[in-house]
Amino acid sequence: MPTKSLFFTVFGKFVKLILSHLSVRIGLRHPDPVVETSSLSSVNPPDVWYRLSIPEETIDRGWLSALQLEAITYAAQQHETFLPNGDRASYLIGDGAGVGKGRTIAGIIYENYLLGRKRSLWFSVSNDLKYDAERDLRDIGAKNIQVHSLNKISSKHNGSVKKGVIFATYSSLIGESQSGGKYKTRLKQLLHWCGDDFDGVIIFDECHKAKNVCPIGSSKPTKTGLAVLELQNKLPKARVVYASATGASEPRNMAYMNRLGIWGEGTPFKEFTNFIQAVERRGVGAMEIVAMDMKLRGMYIARQLSFTGVTFKIEEVPLTQDYIKMYNKSVRLWVRAREKFQQAANLMDAEQRMKKSMWGQFWSAHQRFFKYLCIASKVRRVVQLAREEVKNGKCVVIGLQSTGEARTLEALEEGGGELNDFVSTAKGVLQSLVEKHFPAPDRQKLFSLLGIDLSVKETPSPSETSKEKKVPIITMNTCSEAKSEPEENSCVTSQDAVEDAQRMKRDLLEQLEQLAENLPPNTLDELIDELGGPDIVAEMTGRKGRVVSNDDGTISYESRSELDVPVEILNLTEKQRFMDGDKNIAIISEAASSGISLQADRRVKNQRRRVHMTLELPWSADRAIQQFGRTHRSNQVTAPEYVFLISELAGEQRFASIVAKRLESLGALTHGDRRATETRDLSRFNFDNKVRLDYTHTVKIRNGLIGVGLINVEDRSGVLSLDKDYNNIGKFLNRILGMEVHQQNALFQYFSDTLYAVIQNAKKTGRYDMGILDLGSGDEKVKKVDVKKFLTPGYSTSGHVELYTKLFLCVQVSVERGMSWEDATHVWADQNGPDDGFYVQVRNNKKISILVKEVNLKKRLFMVYRPNIGKQVKLETYADIKKRSKKVLHYCSFIVLSDDAKQHWIDQYNSSANVCSHAYWRGNCKKVSVGLQCEIGLRCRTYYVLCGSVLSVWTKVEGVLASVSGANVKMQIVRLRTEDGQRIVGMLSNKYIIDVHLSSWPCSSSKCGSNSIRRASATPSTHSVTYTPCFRADVASRQPFLSRHTGCVVFNISGFVSKEDSLPKQLQNQSSAGQETALRGAKLDDICSVCFLFTTSTRLNHGLCFPST
């Protein structure tokens, strides 16, 4: 594999990737422009030394693009590394949807197949994607690799599959045998097929399905996540690849990625929990460091298609009066339901555990019910928009998350297989809640439990008794144990309580039936019906049937299956009809949102521009990214349009805020920059910031807040009290959905205004997490003053000694932000406003000059330039400027300025180089007088940036931060570009931390001399060498490659002795450039016994001698 270099074209928050091949071509250009976030692109991955075995034909014909080959190469190279615990290292492909992860994965499998590793495992989310896997392998020339579905391989035929790929879903991985076959679980079947020494490839495609291994609160780990972990633990030599655009929307969801080597033996974090605590404690900035560090170590790559041409639009849907009436009636019913649930629980004297479960179910159903009402408010508008877009020559994709099939089947069963109307999903939510979770036990079963016989004198059967004991309703003595009259009365009282509770339950169900006439029908069924029926609309969902409107006006339930199409490939068939142009409207649900491609592909008939409408914003950013990526992919004729429909309901913005927050977090971790998804135009709906709000002290919508449980009322005293989680913003935004429309809108407006004020205050006081902060932006000049290098040990690899260390840097930079007199006069010469020009201010009998320029004629706002800070961020009004300063007269014909203005400007410019504003105005500074440093108003400010492999020394940095008090403890990530074009991204530090704490760390000087080199031990050891590899040799071909960074030549060394030796004759008495040229052309025998250490300028400094192999 030839060494490559990257050139960058910067635009906005992304960097366009342009590959430049130095010697041998490594593939054709990707068919579509691909970008990488500017912060992630600021770090370079390790040098490439691995040589691919993929045939030249595959590369030359462009079956694998240069970008895909890059990922394949780094994955194969990473797989040569073993972690300190003996497990083989893994690789994470975080490419966005549409870049071509499928072909990249196929290429990794093909590479290993050619090297004799004939067996591979490929996990994904749907069995339908097996056909895509076969297509990807076929497209790259690997036709001879067979793909077998796990669900088609029985236990007894497990050994008949000798080689190829076993394709399985995550659900099948946790499947258990019901027939008592040879293997009780699919996992054991796979382990038997792989064998104990399996070193083939395991692909976890769409690996976000394995998240929640480390759950929050009292929830339990998912079976899928645990199975993925177990498979990796049982096969330590396997070559694991994680692949997903949303592989780590939050650090907590990375628990299954134990092969990355970020935590565990030999890392700063002993356990995953230590890693989580450290990262989450330091906020989004820490998450960005994780992504950059993973790329720096060569274990991660993340590119995404350019969003050039993609349009985002937020369509706010107005509410009709009829809808508002229906919504308010629903709110009142839910308020009554809450009261009845509370009263019934008190009557039943329910246990605390039962109450907790009951209220959990209640508020979960509450949120789902109003979510369905929110969606219903947009159906009419989305139908209208879809029809308009089809008429305009486009095709439409509508995204939903749920189908409501469960409620439809329940209604079908209740109606004896017949339906009179479309089924209301919202009604089903509340009806199911009341029927299953209302605290009113069945009268016969309860009396049986109490020992009261209403019919015949017969004791309860063991089965009935045991069944009732599983859900204890009340705790009391039975009447058979009664020995006194008061206890008999308690039985009678409990009988009355049961009857009262049952009456409440019946009343609620009756009120629901009355409201049901106005509740909206199932969204999916209504959309298909309004848009022309199944013949017009391609449905790609996981449901098996649907409710349709017949020609005679009747409503019936029909199966989605067709005579000539098996159910297993029904979604694929519908997709093909859409791509062929037979249907121009498609509706997709979560079942079809992973892996399916619906873009305007150059290879298909239907090349109309896609308009992707998101009618239901997903609760999970994972799901959102998958759906958005269905219509924006490689090889498309036109980029899609995205339309996010959001109703006027204030509470619905909660769902938008969740997606905005998760996308923000997703951009931070999987793409190294949380601003990566800001083009979504949803940031204004992100209300879930890390601020706490006490809203109930000033908002006077008491009844509404009581109705949604944010204010509690004591049963006896009537005293009001705040809910224990009253200042939880997420809970607040969830609950206000259950308030009447005018109430929630008024409350939400107040909330938004208050939150804005809180955030502004947090920014002023330095408590707001800004993510990545740009230094040296605008007219500021950044110079690199000093660099301190710290080396941390890396891992050894198989086949050769990997002399690898991770470089941790402390970069001192100086930011020049002032404006010289010459620059100021140039700006002044371009001004033409009557009030533009130089002004003189007087304070403490000291004069300074400022330059102002009007930028807003309507509001009379002026840009202010100062000699010490240059362009001022805050605009000032003309009234404020006139109040504090006086304009300097000048003669335009001669372009002559007052000498006073010039002298005051130059004086402050020169003084601000090292004198703060306090000392300049008052003659002294309190901080400076006690020996501290003050940078307020300085023209030249010094910053210390920790960059490179920060994660490898995280615990040390964390300890330093914890020991320092003050506002600077937070982990602020900064990005800057120096005058010479170098881009630096890292963690902002300060002089105190550098001087006091980091000075004691082992340091490598910026010049690589003999003092900074720790020599290898004479005893053979693959772990004792700590040099950085610059010049590496491929063991198979025994041909060295020169890399970009400091390091040394490495060959397959089983035992070596370090000693100094002279250079080969052809390298003596030559310049640095000559030595490099000679070295490139030297024969293997001339250089295999000598290891040269180079600086980045390739100047030879030192040599180490090893015996030839």
TrEMBL record:
Location in the cell:
Nucleus
Question: Where would I find the Strawberry notch helicase C domain in this sequence?
Answer: 522-774
Q: Where is the Strawberry notch AAA domain positioned along the sequence?
A: 29-329
What keywords appear on the UniProt entry?
Coiled coil, Nucleus, Signal
Biological classification of the source: Eukaryota, Metazoa, Chordata, Craniata, Vertebrata
Query: Is Transit peptide a UniProt keyword of this protein?
Result: no
GO CC annotation, single: nucleus
UniProt GO BP: positive regulation of signal transduction; regulation of DNA-templated transcription
> According to the UniProt entry, where is the signal peptide?
1-20
The text of the family note is: Belongs to the SBNO family.
Q: Which GO terms describe its molecular function?
A: chromatin DNA binding; histone binding
Q: Where is the SBNO alpha/beta domain?
A: 819-939
State what protein this is by name: Protein strawberry notch homolog 1
- Cross-referenced Pfam families: AAA_34 (PF13872), Helicase_C_4 (PF13871), SBNO (PF25373)
Please classify the protein's predominant subcellular localization into one broad category. nucleus
Superkingdom of the source species: Eukaryota
